[in-house]
Amino acid sequence: MRYFVVFLFLSFSLSCFAQQVKTVSGIIINDGTHQPAANINIININTVKGTLTDEKGKFTIAASANDTLHISLIGYQSIKVRVTNDWINNTTVTKIPLTERAYTLEEVIIDKYNLTGYLQIDSKLAPIKKPNYRYSISGLPQGYEGGENSPSAFKRIVSSVFNPADLLHNIFGKKPAEMRRLREMKKDDTVRNALASKFDRETLGALLGVTRDEIADILERCNYSEAFITTANDLQIMDAISGCYEEYKAINKK
């Protein structure tokens, strides 16, 4: 009788769990042409799971009521859609319009270097951007990127090493829940592929619950150069923040 009760309890628990895991489906269409939009990224911000639309613009993703779906693709205006009970229980296909993004090209100014046409002379006239330096400190598992070769670069590195917990607590200590989601983000291939193609920090910011400026501030305090912060794609930025967060947790344990 005791084993029967245990079996009945487990069966009931699994049944309830199965009922809670539901999906929503829809079709993403171009708001201007009303045609299906393929390969659109749909990411459930709450579960950090993603999917893509097929050639007919259709998608299906696991979601619960009040979850938020982040829908994006390069060239389109990203949107957030809240999952409702009506959508979960709806048997008809939900169409979601996505608007193409309009870009205004800025004026491009080409500097004059008075080139002579001789390679040996012109190679010396052309400006050379100074490289970013990454310092290796004995006893630490990895280097620290200090930016350009400025007098304060190495000083910032050393100060962060001697007082790393206080430095990083101002960042990660305020957003523990958001930072813990980094591990989940790294597990989903659809999320990683979506971030690898983006440089606007929009999707990454939505997943972490931070702004673009806060992302830059985190990386700066983690001793990444301005060049990396401005040129790396969102996947590289996520991996950089994740690595810095793991160091922060290790420091706190000690």
What does this structure look like?
The chain is of the alpha+beta class and 254 residues long. It has eleven helices and nine strands. The protein has helices at 2-20, 85-89, 119-125, 153-162, 164-172, 176-187, 189-196, 202-208, 212-221, 226-231, 234-253; strands at residues 23-30, 41-44, 49-52, 58-62, 68-72, 79-82, 94-98, 133-135, 144-147. Strands 3-2-5-6 form a four-stranded antiparallel beta sheet, covered by helices on one side. It has a three-stranded mixed beta sheet with strand order 4-1-7. A hairpin with an 8-residue loop joins β8 (133-135) and β9 (144-147). α5 crosses α11. The longest helix has 20 residues, at 234-253. The chain is flat, with a radius of gyration of 24 Å. The N and C termini lie far apart (50 Å). 22% of the residues are buried.
The pLDDT mean sits at 77
User: How much of the sequence is in beta strands?
Assistant: 15-25%
**How would you classify the helix and strand content by structural class?**
alpha+beta
Order of helices and strands: HEEEEEEHEHEEHHHHHHHH
Unreliable residue runs: 4-9, 13-19, 148-155, 160-165
Largest sheet: 4 strands, antiparallel
- Give a count of the beta strands, DSSP E runs of length 2 or more: 9
Number of separate helices: 11
Q: Whole-Å distance between the termini?
A: 50 Å
Order of adjacent strands in the largest pleated sheet: 3-2-5-6
Which word captures the global form? flat
Rg, Cα atoms, Å: 24 Å
Summarize the amount of helix as a percent range. 40-55%
Question: Helix and strand layout, with pairings?
Answer:
Blueprint: H1 2-20, E1 23-30, E2 41-44, E3 49-52, E4 58-62, E5 68-72, E6 79-82, H2 85-89, E7 94-98, H3 119-125, E8 133-135, E9 144-147, H4 153-162, H5 164-172, H6 176-187, H7 189-196, H8 202-208, H9 212-221, H10 226-231, H11 234-253
Parallel strand pairs: 1-7
Antiparallel strand pairs: 1-4, 2-3, 2-5, 5-6, 8-9
